[in-house]
Amino acid sequence: MRIRSYLALLVLACLLGAYMLEQVLGYHYNHVQTLASKYTQSLLLAKDFERIENSASQFLVSTDLVIASGNTYLIFGAKNMGDYISTELSKLQDGNLSSIISTEIKKTIINIQKINNHLDTVGKIPEKELIIHLRKLLPDYDFVSLSLVESIHFMMSETKNVITQEALSLKEEKSFIATAAWVARTFFLLLIIIIWWWANRKICNPLNDLIASSHKALTGHDFQTTDNAPKEITELSNDFKLLTQTLSHQASHDPLTELYNRRAFERNLNEVMKYNNVHLTVNAQNWFLCFIDLDYFKTINDTCGHAVGDQVLVNVARILKQKVRSYDTVARLGGDEFAILINRCPVDKALDIAEQIKRSINQLTYHCQGEDFQLSASIGIAPKKDESSATELLNSADIACGISKKSGRNCVHLFEMNQQIVEDDKQQLLSVHHLNNALNNDLFVLYKQDIIPLQKQKVGQSFEILLRMLGSEGQLISPACFLPVAERYLLTSKIDRWVINAVCEHFISHHEQLTSIKTIAINLSGHSLTDTELETFIISKLTESLIPADKICFEITETAAIKNITRARLFMENIKALGCQFALDDFGSGHSSYAYIKQLPTDKIKIDGAIIANMLTNPIDFTAVKSICEIGKAAKQEIIAEFVENNNLVEALTALGVDYAQGYYFAKPEPLVPQ
């Protein structure tokens, strides 16, 4: 039944109850009015009988004087009095009287008529014979007059009895109507209460149950549907259940791969750790956290497009679900990072699962720019220890995955705490809280590394601004330790802002140093290229600091620029309008394309150091450097080489036409402000 049907029944019941109350009270009110009217009429009748009784007394006195004493001169007056009494009685008889009183009235009228006849007889008797005839009439007269008096007294008595009975009935009816009114009101009130209780049970209680279920669902419990309720509430309850299930699924699952997301995985991991810490058993250590990071996935996204990258992630997720057991937990932590919680499993079986996953991923291929490429993954496994927490287990698996990458990628590494390299990585592991603390308290230090001209001596000094972070004990922390965390939590734009501000403030205080400086190279992250606020900050800061803009060269990586090439080009053009230069850093890494040299308004190309380091031993790297130099010269770009470690590299690079070199052969990084 629908709610409107319940409401219609509720209104109908109220109207029916009110109608019944009105009918009951109205009937009794009319009855009281009728009784009161009868009572009033009886009182008036009694008054009429009193008046008739007085008139009858006068009539009998006159007739007694005529018949008993012979006073014939009273005959006319007595007859008129008798006719008057008969007329009044006839008028009363026309009213609504009882049959007894009506009979007595008739009898009284007859007796009055008899007395009047006697008076007529007396009036006709000669005076000489009057005494004799009166003696004869007197017995009959006495009988009639006595009957007349008795009839009048009877009617008076009967009327008083009727008045008494009607007064008692009126009183009883008034008392009854008062009682009936209270009873009817009480009944109506009870009816309203019953209807309210019924409506509350049918409508309000299901709604309250629905609200309670919604509140429980907000705290993570399952939503309980409401069954015994109106159709609308049942449908709403079912829709709420479907909605909460959908939202719960969306909140705990990655929309692309349909795996658990980071939040749901960490919640599940914490529950497992808490349970095992409370219920310690001999097999408590047979839980493993497997951390999977796809190799060079960012390059796939940047060069092949997000559609290809998404399909790769979906294929990897399918492999993970196929290779694990039904009670293992698989999740996508974000980007190209996956995790598996392997439950109740010996170490050799866990390693076998990881190896199967690695091989299956390595068999995946993706198509990009007309070629097919193989995919690979670096996998780290960390066993659960009795004393370890969920965070420590995640960190251990992350460290093991990092070691796997350092070992050449496409391999599986089992976390071992007794390895010194693991201890070193663990010490270097930073959290987002360390970075925020460093940003808020200026715990960064600016370094610089010279950039040396190779072809001919350039006028002025060129160097790249480098960044170090101060640890809790004052030790210097390499950017390799904190920049990955900054990129993961989108803090690189804030770090870039800090660096730009610190460089400007330094040269505002040491303006005289700018005379001997040709180029100050400052790195920008990929996130900064889409940050309009940072763009505005750079323009404002360079304008206010009065630092010549042509001395500033911003370095951006190729992969960061092509991620959003339209926005990157707009960012570069706005900054170049001040006079600044741009260098395309790490060029040649990944799936680079020379077409980007034409699309981006850069002034310099900085060849990736990994290619430079091996160019003398690897012909492919040498050819790549040579090709980059030729393309760069054709595009009128200055060429800079990184990681130059010896004189042989210097000679080879000079011969290829590289304009600048940077590396430990010339100078190691040193503080911007001498200590």
Keywords:
single chain; 675 residues; alpha/beta; Four Helix Bundle (Hemerythrin (Met), subunit A); Alpha-Beta Plaits; TIM Barrel; 3 domains; eleven-stranded mixed sheet; five-stranded mixed sheet; 21 helices; 61% helix
Describe the protein's architecture and organization.
- This protein is an alpha/beta fold.
- The protein folds into three domains: 3-195, Up-down Bundle (Four Helix Bundle (Hemerythrin (Met), subunit A)); 254-428, Reverse transcriptase/Diguanylate cyclase domain (Alpha-Beta Plaits, 2-Layer Sandwich), CATH 3.30.70.270; 432-671, Alpha-Beta Barrel (TIM Barrel), CATH 3.20.20.450.
- 61% of the residues lie in helices and 13% in strands.
- The chain has helices at residues 3-69, 75-93, 99-124, 130-218, 231-252, 262-278, 297-304, 306-323, 347-362, 390-406, 420-428, 432-440, 479-488, 492-509, 532-545, 558-563, 565-576, 595-599, 609-614, 619-634, 647-656; strands spanning 288-294, 329-334, 337-342, 365-368, 371-374, 377-383, 412-414, 444-450, 452-453, 461-470, 476-477, 517-523, 552-557, 581-587, 604-607, 638-641, 660-661, 670-671.
- Strands 8, 9, 10, 11, 12, 13, 14, 15, 16, 17 and 18 form an eleven-stranded mixed beta sheet that branches. The protein has a five-stranded mixed beta sheet with strand order 2-3-1-6-7, with helices on both faces. Strands 4-5 form a two-stranded antiparallel ribbon.
- β10 (461-470) and β11 (476-477) form a beta hairpin.
- α14 (492-509) runs parallel beside α15.
- The radius of gyration is 59 Å and the shape is rod-shaped.
- The two termini are 85 Å apart.
